[in-house]
Structures are given as C-alpha cells and as structure tokens.
Design goal:
The chain is mainly alpha-helical. It is built from 20 helices and no strands. The longest helix is centred in the middle third of the chain and has 31 residues. The radius of gyration is 22 Å and the shape is globular.
C-alpha cells in the first residue's frame, strides 16, 4: 500500500477500535479511556505492532497527535471559567494545593530512589505528572454517583481544579527552566516571570473582552435586536480554535510550549464573554468533535507510543514500576483523605475523596507526550508515566464507588450562602446540561 492508504487504514483501525473498546469497557463499569489506551497497546510495539506493521505509523501520526493533544488540553481548560477561579473557596483551595504539593514533594524523593540515574529535572517532570488529579474523570465519576451538584461534589471538583492549575503552572516553569542558561536561580526567576507574564496577559485579555461584552454600545445593540451575529456556519467554534491557537503561539514564544497556551485559552471562552446561548452552541460543537474523535484517537495514539516490553525487560524494572504505581496511588489517597477529613468531612467521605482524587487522565498523558517529543522522556520513561496514569485511573473509580455510594447525604445541594463550595461549571461529555449546573440563562 502507498503511504496515504496506509495512513487511512491505520487511522480507521485506531479510531474504530478505540470507540468500540471504549464503549465496551464503559458498559462493564470501567472508564472508556482505559479501553482506548489498551487499543494503542495492542496495535503498538507492546503486542501486535511489529506483526501488523502499525508500529511504524508513529512518524506519520505525529501531526495528528499534536492536534489531538491540543484539543485535549483545550478541553481541559474549557472546564473552567475565570468566575469559578475567583469563587473557589478556601476549603477547596486547601484540598487542591495539598494534593499537588504533597505528592510532588514526596514524589521527588521516591522517584529518585526508584530511578537513581535520572537527571534531577527529569525527576521533577515525572513528579509533576504523577501529582495531577484528572478533573474530567472526577466529574464523570461524581455525576455517575449522583453527587452533582451537591456540595461534596462541587467541593471535590474545585479542589481538582486548583490541583490541575497548580500542576500545569509548575510544568510550564520546569519547561522554561529546561531551556535556561544553567544558573538555577536565574533560570527559575526567568521561568516564573515568563509564566506570570503569560497568565497576566490571558487574564487582562479576559477582562477586556468582558468589558467590551458589557459595554453600553453592545448592550444597546442587544436590546435593540441588532447585536452581532455570525454569517458563516459554526464561526463561533472557529473563533474558539483561533483564540486557542493564538494563545498556544504566545506560550510557544515565551518558551512554555503550546500545551500551556491551549490549556489557559479556555479562560477566554466563557458564558460571561460570549453569552450563554453562544457559549452552549460553541461548546456543544467542541464536545462533539473532541469527545467523538480527538480524545479516543489521542488515547489510542498514546498507547501506540508505549512499549511495555521495555518496562518488563527485567525483574528490577517491573518492581520499580509496580512500586511507582503503588506510591502514586497511595500518596494521593493519603493526602486527599487526610485533608478532606481535616476540613470536617466524615471518614467514608474523606477516603472516598482521596480515592477519586488519585485518578489521573489525559492531561498527564499530554504532558508526557510533549516531554517525549522534545527528548526529555525516553520511550521507556513515557511508558512508565502513562502506565501509572492508566493503572490509577482504572483502580480509583472501582474502589471509590462502593465507598461513596452509601452516603446519601452527600447529594444535598450546597447552601447558597456557603462560599466554601463554589458551584462548578464542569461540563461532561454530553450536550445536555447537568441538572443544577446552569449553562443557559
């Protein structure tokens, strides 16, 4: 077959099998992304890739993988609005900060002990990736357990939100330090300044757009029925992608890679800026394309890039990987459970929270893919990090479901005056709004 036909055959096999297997395991109570990763492992060098000839598709799929990674990070960023960040209470902020800082600090020690030959900067990158809690995975599980929009569910979502932003920001700083001069103090200072400049620019742009949206000129036009309308079909979605690409280019210019720009670009598209009807129309199109195409393909391609043969080439390597999985899972459960308990929740709720926060997801894999592409991670190290994400994402919901399913009082709605539990605007992969989480006026 010629190269074009081979590419289309590979795309067909990966996407068709990822969708089918994801749906199949989803009906068995397992998160679909676990099955989608498994498809990549089956077609990749771990199992049948050398026989089927699909292992050599990595080069041809690099562009698709970058685009899929871009959409995955933008999807993660769109789960958040600036209003939600401003309203996140102290309790959620404490939880999110603790379940990032604690595992990150402990991870540095444990990862160095397990893999003593890794450079310090690589150890820091690995520690960042295993310190992330998967916000979309957490949202799906809370919805399935009937804990949205109860105050416990929104408390956990906002905690995961803080965790994710802390991890992405730390990741950006480390990327900037990697390209520095070699003087640690100077490089860290420059990296922090670059990240601060980028975030400040995004927040200023968000404020300007909101001011324009609420200006008397536009208010008068909306009142008179002569407000601006798009003439091109689905132009609102195109503007979303253009804004995200501009943000990605800006972050690339600052040495932070497109991952950071794609993630933070979600702050520029919010109901307060584009209006709730337009926001719902844009995000419905985005959800359909991202969850129906890019996320299954992203997971399958990530699995295709893994090679478990490299992890299982010796007993020491297998034991080190198993130890890292146990640590990555246990440290998040421990910090999540202890902090939640200290904040006044009962024992079952606290340990259930720790179990849910121990799940990883696509953001961690996206970070690892970028590190693989720029040479920070080897295929073996990428396989280890992605393997930890898959194992913890599989185990966490299984153990958390029975822990939280028997606590009916968690389903109560949050008191309107309780500022500790800001209402989350997390959007599930479903065009229909979550009951109680407003998306329309």
């Amino acid at each position: 077959m010629d190269a074009t036909t081979l590419f289309i055959v590979g795309l067909f096999l990966l996407l068709a099998c990822a969708v089918f297997v994801g749906e199949l395991v989803g009906r068995l109570g397992v998160l679909p992304l676990v099955g989608q990763f498994a498809v990549g492992l089956i077609f990749g060098p771990t199992l049948f890739g050398p026989i089927l000839g699909l292992s050599g598709l990595n080069a041809e799929f690099q562009g698709v993988q970058v685009l899929a990674t871009f959409f995955v990070l933008l999807a993660a960023g769109l789960t958040v609005t600036p209003e939600q960040l401003r309203n996140t209470g102290a309790a959620s902020a404490a939880l999110g900060g603790a379940v990032f800082v604690g595992p990150f600090a402990a991870g540095i020690v444990v990862i160095h002990a397990l893999y003593p030959t890794l450079p310090l900067l690589t150890v820091l990158f690995v520690s960042v990736t295993i310190s992330i809690s998967a916000l979309p995975v957490l949202g799906i599980m809370l919805q399935e357990l009937g804990l949205l929009p109860g105050r416990f569910g929104t408390f956990l979502l906002n905690g995961a939100l803080v965790n994710e932003f802390a991890a992405v920001t730390a990741y950006a700083i480390l990327l900037r330090v990697r390209d520095g001069s070699g003087h640690v103090t100077l490089d860290v200072s420059v990296a922090v300044a670059a990240v601060a400049l980028f975030v400040a620019t995004i927040l200023v742009a968000e404020r300007v757009l909101r001011h324009v949206r609420n200006s008397s000129f536009w208010t008068a036009r909306r009142s008179s029925g002569t407000g601006f309308t798009w003439r091109s079909r689905e132009a609102g979605f195109a503007v979303l992608v253009v804004a995200a690409l501009a943000s990605a280019l800006y972050s690339q210019f600052l040495g932070l890679t497109f991952v950071i720009g794609a993630f933070y670009a979600g702050l520029l598209i919010s109901p307060e800026i584009v209006g709730r009807p337009s926001y719902r129309a844009i995000t419905q199109v985005f959800d359909t394309i991202t969850w129906g195409f890019f996320i299954p393909l992203f997971c399958a391609l990530a699995g295709l890039g893994m090679n478990l043969r490299l992890v299982g080439n010796s007993l020491d390597a297998v034991l080190a990987f198993a130890a890292l999985c146990v640590f990555a899972f246990g440290i998040k459960v421990a910090f999540g459970g202890v902090v939640t308990s200290r904040l006044g929740w009962g024992s079952r709720e606290s340990w259930g929270a720790g179990l849910l926060l121990a799940s990883r997801g696509a953001v961690e894999i996206a970070m690892a893919l970028v590190l693989l592409s720029i040479g920070v991670f080897t295929v073996q190290l990428f396989t280890i990090v992605a393997g930890v994400a898959i194992v913890t994402t599989f185990v966490s919901p299984v153990l958390a479901r029975p822990m939280l399913a028997s606590v009916p009082r968690l389903r109560s709605r949050p008191p309107a005056a309780d500022s500790r539990y800001a209402v989350s605007v997390w959007r599930p992969p479903d065009p229909e709004p979550v009951a109680g989480v407003a998306r329309d006026p």
